[in-house]
Amino acid sequence: MTVRRIAVVSAGLSNPSSTRMLADRLAAETLKALRERDIEASVDVIELRDYAHDITNNLLTGFAPPALETAINTVVSADALIAVTPIFSTSYSGLFKSFIDVLDPDALTGKPVLIGANAGTARHSLAIDYAIRPLFAYLHAEAVSTGVFAASSDWGGAGDDVAPLAKRVEKGARELAEAIARRDAASAADPYDPATYLGEGRSFGHLLGGLAGE
What we know:
Blueprint: E1 4-10, H1 18-35, E2 41-47, H2 52-61, H3 66-76, E3 80-88, E4 91-92, H4 94-101, E5 112-119, H5 127-138, E6 142-143, E7 148-151, H6 164-182, H7 204-212
Parallel strand pairs: 1-2, 1-3, 3-5, 5-6, 5-7
Antiparallel strand pairs: 3-4
Helix pairs in contact: 1-6, 2-4
């Protein structure tokens, strides 16, 4: 049986962070939902704070250092993506957007995505729908209908197993698992194949095609 691969991108800046906590809960619940469907899956977590300097260098030079190249290929070759960002100034964080910017514009086409976000208060919960979801729609990714938002008040309360956050996490994870189950397993991208290499935030195939047209 082919093991499905889920990439988890967490854009939290602190360590530990509530962003990573939310990402971990979404991943764990998705794995549970997939097991209920007799689908085996693995998870690769990418903490963007560990790649902040590499992402900046990629934006400046157009070339991804090896560690960032590996992270990019992990995301684009996965069967599904869980993307979680803190909300800064009513939108996704700059680090989160910068990572998206180094991906090839077509790299996430058709990929199931579960969106998560966290902030200090629930007043920012609409940011998922007016800021983050349109970003993935522009990239032609297939974001599931439920986005999971967590405010500071969602953490550490009594009766966490029946808390609204737990229910949102379960619903979003179930939708992502259903989207994964409907698709054939993705094949891993060959990092040495010019048609699929994504280390520059764009494929060599895309780059060579552009050069041919000049």
